[in-house]
Amino acid sequence: MSEGESRIFPPTRSAVTAVYKWDGSRVEPPEIEPDIYNFRNPGFLSQADLRQLAMTHEKYVQHLSARLSTFLRMECMIKIRKLNSSTFAKFCDGIQSPTHVTLFEVEPLRGVGVLDMSLPLALAIVDRLLGGKGRVIEAGNNLTEMETALVEDAVQLILTEWSNQWHDNNWNFQPRCIGTDTSGRFLQTSAAEAVTLMVDLEVTLGECVEHMQMGVPFSMIEVIVKKMQQSRLKGNESRNKQLEWRAPYEAIDVPVTADWVVAQMTVEEVLNLRPDDMIPVPMTLIENTRVRLSDTPQFVGTVGIENGHVAVELTSRIKSDH
């Protein structure tokens, strides 16, 4: 090799990242290609978690529609267009500009959430709060300080109603607005790859039909998701739990009786009964024999004779009102 000439050598075997199986044997690079995993970033929400979150947010939009209608003294209808989990970077990419972005915290949860409200919707709310009919007016690049203050009252109601959906005896969530912006391009409240719950809403306020979306970082709802998962596990355990026979049960006597509901009579009719009086009995009485366990009606069956003994064949179970 002459002076000044350079040459690139391929990486040696020792430079290749070693990958090992569970039994300690080495895996050659052509057999498997390892992926880089960021352990600081939790995994995406599972389908079961998303289904449960979707049901909770369905109740949320119903309550929010009623609350905003009362607050604005005008019918307000809200429905969910989309609910999924993605990265914070993708959520920010979906924020149109200009818009009205509110940053919020929910104590004692960790993280900062984002509420994106379209400018026409924000201005319609301002118009209604100032005594107007909530009509859509021409939107500028951003809201004035007075308009921002008026919209913040509505935003605080939106966040309070969202926090109330997770109300628990052990939790007392307190939401508060901590800042506003006109774009999502420069938001740095979460890492770009942080998992974010995205809730896209359609809001109908009079003639105004606009969108509003909420981005909640996983760190904020982590304790909520864990509690939902524990509840599902307990539910599965209770369904899968099989009844086990216990020896002490063998010594417990349970009275078993069979009877019929023959007829209903007044007290006067009962007092007037005399020997040789006839009480009408329906023909279906035998098929509607009621079986009591410990004087509690449990089954319905058909009475008959088997091996010289009176027996009742159980045909259905009586549903309890409790």
What is the share of helical residues? Answer: 25-40%
What is the CATH domain class of the largest domain?
Alpha Beta
The CATH superfamily title of the largest domain: CheC-like
N-end to C-end Cα span: 92 Å
> Total helix count?
6
Q: For the largest beta sheet, what order do the strands appear in spatially?
A: 3-7-8-5-4-6
Number of domains: 2
> Stretches where pLDDT falls below 50 for ≥5 residues?
4-15
**Apparent shape:** elongated
N-to-C SSE string, H for helix and E for strand: EEHEHEEHHEEEHEHEEE
How would you sum up the major sheet? 6 strands, antiparallel
Strand content: 25-35%
Mean pLDDT: 83
Strand element count = 12
Structural class: alpha+beta
CATH topology of the largest domain: Chemotaxis protein chec
Give the second-level CATH assignment, the architecture of the largest domain.
3-Layer(aba) Sandwich
Radius of gyration: 34 Å
Describe this structure in words.
It is a single chain. With 322 residues, the protein is α+β, with helices and mostly antiparallel strands. It has 2 domains: 47-236, CheC-like (Chemotaxis protein chec, 3-Layer(aba) Sandwich); 257-265 and 285-315, no CATH class. Helices cover 28% and strands 27% of the residues. It contains 6 helices and 12 strands. The protein has helices spanning 47-72, 88-93, 119-129, 145-164, 218-240, 267-271, and strands at 19-20, 26-27, 76-87, 100-107, 113-117, 174-181, 195-205, 208-217, 256-259, 289-293, 296-306, 309-317. The strands form 3 sheets. The chain has a 6-stranded antiparallel beta sheet with strand order 3-7-8-5-4-6. Helix 1 (47-72) crosses helix 4 (145-164) and helix 3 crosses helix 4. The longest helix has 26 residues, at 47-72. The radius of gyration is 34 Å and the shape is elongated. The termini are far apart.
